[in-house]
Amino acid sequence: MFLEELARTHTEGRRDYIYYLAFGNARIKNYDLSLNYCRAFLEIESNEQVRSLEEYIKKQSDKEIAKGMAVAGGAALVLGGILGLGFAMARNKQKRDKK
Questions:
Q1: What is the DSSP-derived secondary structure letter of residue 89?
Q2: What does the DSSP 8-state code read for residue 46?
Q3: What CA–CA distance (Å, rounded) separates 4 from 22?
Q4: Residue ranges making up the domain that contains 24
Q5: Where does the chain cross the membrane (predicted)?
Q6: What is d(CA 69, CA 1) in angstroms, rounded to the nearest whole number?
Q7: pLDDT tens digits, 10-26
Q8: pTM, rounded to two decimals
Q9: SS3 for 81?
Q10: How many separate domains does the chain show?
């Protein structure tokens, strides 16, 4: 919040404050906000360091999305296995009860 206020009020250091905001938000895995700060910086001036930070953020964001999808897929497989086992046990119990 302090850096955001400085970026708004001090025009001479704005580009530095915006870079630190982008970098800091990337470090705490707040990728959406970090990308917004990178874009804001690039509107002020073109900078290779900020472009590479933007690429890094996009890659990390994609990795986080892939991890989330893998966890969700694994949970779906576990749930499917439990349901399948439950149906098999119920069917087996019905067969035993008929005898």
A1: H
A2: -
A3: 11
A4: 2-98
A5: 69-90
A6: 32
A7: 778 888 888 999 999 99
A8: 0.69
A9: helix
A10: 1
